Amino acid sequence: MINLHGPQGAVDVSGLDGGAALPAHAVWIDLVDPTAEEARRVEEKTGIRVPSRAALSEVELSSRLRRSRDGISLSTPMVTFDRSDFSLKPLGFLLNKNHLVTVRYHDMRAFAAVRKRVDEEGGDGSTGARMFLLVVEELVDNLADLLEEMSADLDNLSTRIFDFDASARPGARKGDTSAPKRRDLALRRLLRTVGRHGKSLSKVRASLLGLERIVAFAKGECGQHLDEGDAPRFETLARDIASLDEFETRLSETLQFLLDATLGLINVEQNNAFRILTVVSVVGVPPTLVASMYGMNFKHMPELDWVYGYPYGLALIAISAIVPLLYFKSKGWL
């Protein structure tokens, strides 16, 4: 699909189905999952070869930042901004003095915002470089909003981790044997949540790194064609991206801290389990000793002739089990 925009707003594309040439006043050509025919028409219009999706997905720097005779080709991975399907997809920019061509494979609210800005709010899209600035500025704004949402999510996650006490949930009965299972399930959920946030932050980091590179490259390559006021916008963009990169780094450090805290909670739960096993094993030793002692087959054992010898043995076994329990309880192990 082809979307066209000129300095005054959207350009009608209804008459382009028959293979007509693209209008001369179209500055921004937005290709959404383009067909081979659409790519050919854009190449005829701008003189810049439209890369394939595989070419836009290349990871080496020489493939993402290229200079040709007719313009520059830039590509970067960009997050989808959809939290239900958070993934990275390629985004391409083809730029020369008169045109900006964007190549994308998913809907992005940043592009809709730029169209509205040009159509209704008088955004300056008179040149390819200025249209490029509008698009990248909106992408940076969206990434900033996304990082703010992630920061709020990490705050909530921090509260969940450091207030974690599944056994004290409302409605839980004292001595409820399902409490360990609930704690285990809650910790698993926390760990999965931390993992999802880490995965999302890594995708945002890749998007910021890609934007940082293409902004610097575009400014260097288009410097002689920039009008007064364009160069400061490039510098502002670079500073904004750098500040977002620092913010993302702090969020990553916070996430690592929360991961360590979650693993610490898991270790505490494991230690509790081992502590219970230790108490059980220690409590079982004295009764076993008493039972084994009175189970010896010697002929002369005074207790064999006692009327209350059997109750005495049972009482001794019970006392030898209760005393360690009371001791561990006084030490706070139970």
TrEMBL record:
Residues annotated as signal peptide: none
Membrane topology: Multi-pass membrane protein
Keywords from the UniProt entry: Membrane, Transmembrane, Transmembrane helix
Entry's transmembrane regions: 276-296, 308-328
Subcellular location: Membrane
Annotated InterPro entries: CorA_cytoplasmic_dom (IPR045861), CorA_MIT (IPR050829), CorA_TM1_TM2 (IPR045863), MgTranspt_CorA/ZnTranspt_ZntB (IPR002523)
PANTHER family found in the cross-reference section: MAGNESIUM TRANSPORT PROTEIN CORA
Family from the record: Belongs to the CorA metal ion transporter (MIT) (TC 1.A.35) family.
Protein name: Magnesium transport protein CorA
Organism: Methylorubrum suomiense
